[in-house]
Structure to design on (271 residues):
C-alpha cells in the first residue's frame, strides 16, 4: 500500500494511542502530523514518536492525504467547519468520535465526504484495542485498507455494514472495558474487605481476569464450556454463579448494553 501523509486533529488519549501504535508498527514518523489545541501534549508526542506537531488544524490537514478527526463529539462541528473546504473528494477523513453520524459530517462539510467512522476502545492504549469501522459510500478500497491498517496498529478491527451497527459496537466494545473495570473494582473492594492488602487484592483480580481472557482467546471452545470447567457440581463456584444468576446478571448486562446503545442514539440527536 502506498504510504500516505496522515494528520491527527485532536491529539488526546485515543489519537495519541493510534499514533504510538503506527510508529511502533514501522509507519514512517515523518508522514505523521499531530494537531492539538494545547501544546503540552504535542511536545510529548514529538519527543516520544518523532512526529510533526502543530497547533494549526488547517495546516496539519492541508498537508495530509488522510485526516483523523480525534476531538470530542461536542468540538467536532467547529473543527469540521474549519476544514470543510479541504474536502476535495479525494482526501480521506476518519472519525473516532462516538455519536457523530455521517449525516452530521455531510451537513458540516456541506457535501458528501469520503469518511470512515470508527469506534475504538481504550485498550488501544496498550495495543489491545478492538475497533469497529464503517465506511461511507464515498470511500474506496484504498480508504478502507488504510483505515484498517491504522486501527490494527493498536489492536483488532471489525467492519460493520450499517452505521447503526456502530452503536452496537459501542455497547459490545467501545464502552465495554468499563464494564470489566466495574466488575474488577467490585472484586478488588471485596478482596480488601476480606483482609488482603491493596497490592495483593489488585494482583489477584488482575491476574485472574487476564488469565480468563487469555483462555477465551487461546482455547477454541464456547465460553460457557470454560465456565463449566471451573464449576464443580455442588462446589464453591456453583454457589457463586447461582448468586449472580439469581440476581439476574444476564438481564442486567443486556439492559446495560441497551442503555449504551440508546445513549449513542441520543448523543447523535443532541449534536
Ligand atoms: N475514551 C474512550 O473510551 C473512547 C473515546 N472515543 C472518542 O475519541 C474521541 C477523543 O476522545 P479522547 O481521546 O478520550 O479525548 P481527549 O480529551 O484525550 O482528546 C481530545 C483532544 O482534542 C484536543 N482538542 C480540543 N479542541 C481542539 C481543537 N479545536 N482543535 C484541536 N484539538 C482540540 C484536546 O486538547 C485533546 O487533546 C472522542 O470523540 C470520543 O468519543 C471513542 C471510543 C472510545
Ligand atoms: O463513553 C463514551 O461516550 C465514549 C464512547 C465509547 C467509550 N467512551
Amino acid at each position: 500500500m502506498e504510504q500516505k501523509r496522515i494528520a491527527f486533529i485532536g491529539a488526546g488519549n485515543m489519537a495519541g494511542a493510534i499514533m504510538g501504535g503506527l510508529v511502533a508498527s514501522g509507519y514512517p514518523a515523518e508522514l505523521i502530523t499531530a494537531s492539538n489545541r494545547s501544546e503540552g501534549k504535542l511536545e510529548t508526542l514529538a519527543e516520544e514518536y518523532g512526529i510533526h506537531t502543530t497547533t494549526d488544524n488547517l495546516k496539519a490537514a492541508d498537508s495530509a492525504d488522510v485526516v483523523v478527526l480525534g476531538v470530542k463529539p461536542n468540538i467536532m462541528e467547529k473543527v469540521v467547519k474549519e476544514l470543510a473546504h479541504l474536502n476535495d473528494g479525494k482526501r480521506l477523513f476518519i472519525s473516532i468520535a462516538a455519536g457523530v453520524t455521517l449525516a452530521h459530517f455531510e451537513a458540516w462539510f456541506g457535501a458528501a465526504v469520503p469518511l470512515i467512522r470508527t469506534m475504538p476502545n481504550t485498550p488501544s492504549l496498550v495495543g489491545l484495542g478492538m475497533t469497529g469501522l464503517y465506511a461511507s459510500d464515498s470511500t474506496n478500497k484504498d480508504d478502507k485498507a488504510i483505515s484498517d491498517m491504522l486501527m490494527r496498529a493498536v489492536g483488532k478491527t471489525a467492519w460493520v455494514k450499517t452505521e447503526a451497527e456502530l452503536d452496537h459496537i459501542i455497547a459490545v466494545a467501545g464502552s465495554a472495558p468499563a464494564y470489566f473495570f466495574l466488575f474488577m473494582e467490585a472484586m478488588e473492594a471485596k478482596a480488601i474487605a476480606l483482609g488482603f492488602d491493596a497490592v495483593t487484592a489488585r494482583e489477584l483480580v488482575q491476574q485472574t481476569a487476564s488469565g480468563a481472557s487469555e483462555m477465551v482467546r487461546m482455547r477454541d471452545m464456547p465460553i460457557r464450556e470454560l465456565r463449566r470447567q471451573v464449576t464443580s457440581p455442588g462446589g464453591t463456584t456453583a454457589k457463586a454463579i447461582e448468586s449472580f444468576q439469581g440476581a439476574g446478571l444476564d438481564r442486567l448486562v443486556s439492559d446495560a448494553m441497551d442503555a449504551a446503545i440508546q445513549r449513542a442514539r441520543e448523543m447523535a440527536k443532541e449534536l
Remarks:
- The chain has twelve helices and eight strands.
